[in-house]
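Worked example

This section walks through a single chain of length 81. The input is the sequence exactly as stored; nothing has been trimmed or padded.
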Amino acid sequence: MYRLAWGDTGKIETAQPLYVFAWNGQPLKPQISFEPISSTAVAKQQVGTLTVTANKQAISSPLILKQNIHNPGWRWRLFNF
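Given that input, the structure is written out below as tokens.
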């Protein structure tokens, strides 16, 4: 879930499936990095990257929004300038 300063949220998903091959019990190390977005963003816009590392192998996929992010409105902008 991507949460913005004005309280709006947007669900995120990977742009493509990630397949990681590892032994049973071998630790997987997920790392998520988010990019800043504007006050309005549209579905399918990239908002970050998910990288999973296992056995010295890293696999990444872009994170995209599943839905539109709405403008914060004038009141929030006025009181949070």
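What to look for: The first strand starts at residue 2 and ends at 3.
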